[in-house]
Amino acid sequence: MAGAAKDTPERPAEEEITPFHASLVLFVGKASGAVTDPVAGFFISKSRWTKVGRLMPWMLACTPFTVVSYFFMWYLPPFVSGRVAWYLTFYCLFQALTTLFQVPYSALTMFLSTDQKERDSATAYRMTMEVLGTLIGAALQGQIVASAHLSHHCTVNPPVNTTDTWHDTPSFPDPSDPLSHQAKVYMIAAGVIGGVYLLGIVILFLGVKEKDDPYALNSDRAIPFCKGLGLTMKHGPYVKLTASFLLISTAVQLEQSNFVLFCTHAADLRNHFQYLVVTILVSAAVSIPFWQKFLQRFGKKCAACGISWMIPFAVMLVTIPNLILAYLVAFVSGLSIAASLLLPWSMLPDVVDNFRLQNPHGKGHETIFYSSYVFFTKMSAGIGLGISAAGLEFTGYKPGMCRQSNDVILTLKILTGVVPAILILVGLFILLFYPITEESRKETKLALEVLRRSHQSTENLDDHKEDTSV
Length: 470
Hints:
This protein is about 70% helix and about 0% strand. It contains 15 helices and two strands.
């Protein structure tokens, strides 16, 4: 976005969107999205059941506005001085609207089926489609905007007479004209992605049928949001699950956000990083069904060991930069990322079931759990972004330069190898104390089935009494 909104060199520096401005927009946007999570959970928990469900109306209503805000994120306004405010406004709006979609969309898993295996299967299918969607979106946008980035200002083997000054001088395209080729292709790409977004919501609406809370009595009252949030934050299994995957997600964010910079500046693989990213996405998409089969056979806590697979390979790449090793690291990282994506969303319904068993006469707590967990996932992204930005800024990272200082290269090695390894190991250690096992899941399932039958019989008895009194 910073590249698409940069001004001509002849204009004053204060009129340009600098990398600092771009980082500020990203940070404030992520923060606004995180703040929206509990607000969205509050209003969604107050929603009433409609003909199309309780969650579906939220997703249908926010999608058109989400597409519009996404398009204007990539639109180059004709004015110059207010472009930072323009992108900040629409990025914050996009993050808030995405939250209004993501919270009910993720909580929808609890309203598809009461069977744990069916919900796990639905979660695996959802995560596979999300990774594939990311891959398709990246491929579409990459192909559309490729013509705007044909020139490369860095060469692997510069001429003998090339000076350091020439080698380190960044050459950005000049898209200051809103009608320039670069501005047009980015708007075309945004329109295409918006169309894919609309297609996805149509498929969701036509293919998914939401079911009302199968465990709650008609007389049960919804848990007040603030009280429910307090109970959620005190629920032991949820606290351990959230703490564990907050650290693991932060590690994955650090690995993902710094992998390209590491390949570009530390491993001298700048001509391969696009293929490495594709390798990660393909590996993650293909391996999610494998992890689903694995956790069904060996258990979810056992499947968490797969998250640690990236550690030895990442450390090897940091110490011995090599092209073949880089592709191996990308493949194994995809496996670990797939496990880190699937497991928390597969374990969260078990936590909700456990909470339901302890609070049998309350309803509407599902959106509280999911909105708060979405908040923590965004917090992990913000923490990862903050650690990366602070570390690179402190060591003197200069965006656009072909060669960085030794301190920057050392920082990239630490952010790619050491810090993620420590966070993953600590997160997995916390997960050891996660109390829900495969045996307790089966016990909870049986107990909820008994509760469900007792609710149905109670409702039938109440209806019979009403008929007799009439």
